[in-house]
Amino acid sequence: QIFDYFVLRISDSHKKVKQKALDVLAEITGVLEDALNPVIIGLVEGITNNLNSKDPRVHAAAVKALEESIAHLDKVALMKEFSYQWSKLSGQALLDVTERITVLVEWVYPRSPEVVQHYALPVLWSFLGNKALPVRSANVRAVVTKLASALYKVMGSKLK
Protein backbone atom coordinates (compact mmCIF):
# COMPACT_ATOMS: atom_id res chain seq x y z
CA GLN A 1 0.00 0.00 0.00
CA ILE A 2 2.86 2.37 0.74
CA PHE A 3 4.23 1.90 -2.76
CA ASP A 4 0.95 2.89 -4.36
CA TYR A 5 1.55 6.36 -2.95
CA PHE A 6 5.28 6.22 -3.59
CA VAL A 7 4.75 5.51 -7.30
CA LEU A 8 2.54 8.60 -7.43
CA ARG A 9 5.49 10.67 -6.18
CA ILE A 10 7.68 9.26 -8.97
CA SER A 11 5.09 10.61 -11.41
CA ASP A 12 4.57 13.92 -9.61
CA SER A 13 4.43 17.08 -11.72
CA HIS A 14 7.03 18.83 -9.57
CA LYS A 15 10.57 18.05 -10.71
CA LYS A 16 12.08 18.16 -7.24
CA VAL A 17 9.50 15.73 -5.85
CA LYS A 18 10.14 13.34 -8.77
CA GLN A 19 13.89 13.59 -8.36
CA LYS A 20 13.77 12.98 -4.61
CA ALA A 21 11.40 10.01 -5.02
CA LEU A 22 13.70 8.46 -7.64
CA ASP A 23 16.75 9.08 -5.45
CA VAL A 24 15.05 7.43 -2.48
CA LEU A 25 13.95 4.51 -4.67
CA ALA A 26 17.54 3.96 -5.78
CA GLU A 27 18.65 3.92 -2.13
CA ILE A 28 15.98 1.57 -0.80
CA THR A 29 16.07 -0.91 -3.70
CA GLY A 30 19.24 -2.51 -2.35
CA VAL A 31 17.75 -2.80 1.12
CA LEU A 32 14.31 -4.13 0.15
CA GLU A 33 15.42 -6.27 -2.83
CA ASP A 34 12.96 -9.16 -3.34
CA ALA A 35 10.30 -7.45 -1.25
CA LEU A 36 9.87 -5.03 -4.18
CA ASN A 37 9.01 -7.78 -6.68
CA PRO A 38 5.22 -7.48 -6.12
CA VAL A 39 5.37 -3.78 -7.09
CA ILE A 40 7.94 -4.09 -9.87
CA ILE A 41 5.48 -3.18 -12.63
CA GLY A 42 4.55 0.18 -11.12
CA LEU A 43 8.14 0.99 -10.22
CA VAL A 44 9.51 0.23 -13.69
CA GLU A 45 6.72 2.20 -15.31
CA GLY A 46 7.42 5.17 -13.04
CA ILE A 47 11.15 5.02 -13.68
CA THR A 48 10.90 4.64 -17.45
CA ASN A 49 8.41 7.50 -17.71
CA ASN A 50 11.10 9.80 -16.30
CA LEU A 51 13.89 8.76 -18.67
CA ASN A 52 12.88 11.40 -21.23
CA SER A 53 12.85 14.20 -18.65
CA LYS A 54 14.37 17.43 -19.87
CA ASP A 55 15.65 18.05 -16.35
CA PRO A 56 19.08 16.40 -16.22
CA ARG A 57 18.75 15.71 -12.48
CA VAL A 58 15.47 13.84 -12.93
CA HIS A 59 16.93 11.86 -15.83
CA ALA A 60 20.05 11.00 -13.82
CA ALA A 61 17.94 9.90 -10.84
CA ALA A 62 15.80 7.71 -13.14
CA VAL A 63 18.92 6.10 -14.64
CA LYS A 64 20.30 5.44 -11.16
CA ALA A 65 17.01 3.86 -10.06
CA LEU A 66 17.07 1.74 -13.22
CA GLU A 67 20.60 0.54 -12.45
CA GLU A 68 19.71 -0.30 -8.86
CA SER A 69 16.68 -2.27 -10.00
CA ILE A 70 18.88 -4.37 -12.29
CA ALA A 71 21.35 -4.96 -9.48
CA HIS A 72 18.80 -6.04 -6.88
CA LEU A 73 15.47 -7.15 -8.39
CA ASP A 74 14.30 -10.26 -10.25
CA LYS A 75 16.00 -10.04 -13.62
CA VAL A 76 13.49 -12.22 -15.48
CA ALA A 77 10.60 -10.05 -14.29
CA LEU A 78 12.60 -6.93 -15.16
CA MET A 79 13.25 -8.13 -18.71
CA LYS A 80 9.54 -8.78 -19.19
CA GLU A 81 8.57 -5.38 -17.82
CA PHE A 82 11.33 -3.49 -19.69
CA SER A 83 10.20 -5.13 -22.92
CA TYR A 84 6.59 -4.18 -22.24
CA GLN A 85 7.51 -0.58 -21.36
CA TRP A 86 9.87 -0.39 -24.35
CA SER A 87 6.94 -0.54 -26.74
CA LYS A 88 5.52 2.62 -25.14
CA LEU A 89 8.74 4.65 -25.14
CA SER A 90 10.44 7.05 -27.50
CA GLY A 91 13.58 9.14 -27.62
CA GLN A 92 16.37 8.65 -25.12
CA ALA A 93 14.16 6.48 -22.90
CA LEU A 94 13.94 3.94 -25.73
CA LEU A 95 17.73 3.74 -25.87
CA ASP A 96 18.18 3.67 -22.08
CA VAL A 97 15.78 0.75 -21.69
CA THR A 98 17.31 -1.09 -24.66
CA GLU A 99 20.72 -0.83 -23.01
CA ARG A 100 19.28 -2.37 -19.83
CA ILE A 101 17.62 -5.18 -21.80
CA THR A 102 21.04 -5.85 -23.35
CA VAL A 103 22.60 -6.14 -19.89
CA LEU A 104 19.88 -8.58 -18.80
CA VAL A 105 20.18 -10.85 -21.86
CA GLU A 106 23.40 -12.50 -20.71
CA TRP A 107 22.04 -13.18 -17.23
CA VAL A 108 18.52 -14.29 -18.18
CA TYR A 109 19.23 -16.52 -21.20
CA PRO A 110 20.98 -19.39 -19.35
CA ARG A 111 18.15 -19.50 -16.81
CA SER A 112 15.20 -18.86 -19.09
CA PRO A 113 15.97 -18.81 -22.84
CA GLU A 114 12.28 -18.56 -23.76
CA VAL A 115 12.01 -15.24 -21.90
CA VAL A 116 14.86 -13.77 -23.96
CA GLN A 117 13.33 -15.11 -27.16
CA HIS A 118 9.89 -13.80 -26.28
CA TYR A 119 10.89 -10.40 -24.86
CA ALA A 120 14.36 -9.33 -26.09
CA LEU A 121 14.22 -10.55 -29.69
CA PRO A 122 11.15 -8.41 -30.55
CA VAL A 123 13.08 -5.36 -29.37
CA LEU A 124 15.86 -6.16 -31.85
CA TRP A 125 13.37 -6.85 -34.64
CA SER A 126 11.63 -3.54 -33.96
CA PHE A 127 14.88 -1.66 -34.30
CA LEU A 128 15.68 -3.51 -37.50
CA GLY A 129 12.21 -2.56 -38.71
CA ASN A 130 13.11 1.12 -38.11
CA LYS A 131 11.09 1.64 -34.90
CA ALA A 132 13.85 3.88 -33.58
CA LEU A 133 14.04 6.26 -36.53
CA PRO A 134 12.33 9.09 -34.61
CA VAL A 135 15.11 8.88 -31.99
CA ARG A 136 17.45 11.77 -32.65
CA SER A 137 20.65 10.27 -31.40
CA ALA A 138 23.86 9.00 -32.90
CA ASN A 139 23.78 6.24 -30.28
CA VAL A 140 21.00 4.24 -31.97
CA ARG A 141 23.43 2.20 -34.06
CA ALA A 142 25.70 1.50 -31.08
CA VAL A 143 22.77 0.44 -28.85
CA VAL A 144 21.33 -1.88 -31.51
CA THR A 145 24.77 -3.36 -32.20
CA LYS A 146 25.27 -4.09 -28.49
CA LEU A 147 21.86 -5.77 -28.27
CA ALA A 148 22.48 -7.86 -31.39
CA SER A 149 25.94 -8.83 -30.13
CA ALA A 150 24.61 -9.83 -26.70
CA LEU A 151 21.88 -11.93 -28.30
CA TYR A 152 24.36 -13.57 -30.68
CA LYS A 153 26.75 -14.27 -27.80
CA VAL A 154 24.14 -16.25 -25.87
CA MET A 155 22.12 -17.70 -28.75
CA GLY A 156 24.78 -18.29 -31.38
CA SER A 157 23.43 -19.49 -34.71
CA LYS A 158 19.91 -19.81 -33.17
CA LEU A 159 19.64 -16.04 -33.56
CA LYS A 160 19.40 -16.44 -37.32
TrEMBL record:
GO terms for biological process: microtubule cytoskeleton organization. GO terms for molecular function: microtubule binding. Signal peptide: none annotated. InterPro entries: ARM-like, ARM-type_fold. Gene3D superfamilies: Leucine-rich Repeat Variant. GO terms for cellular component: cilium; cytoplasmic microtubule. This is TGRM2 protein.
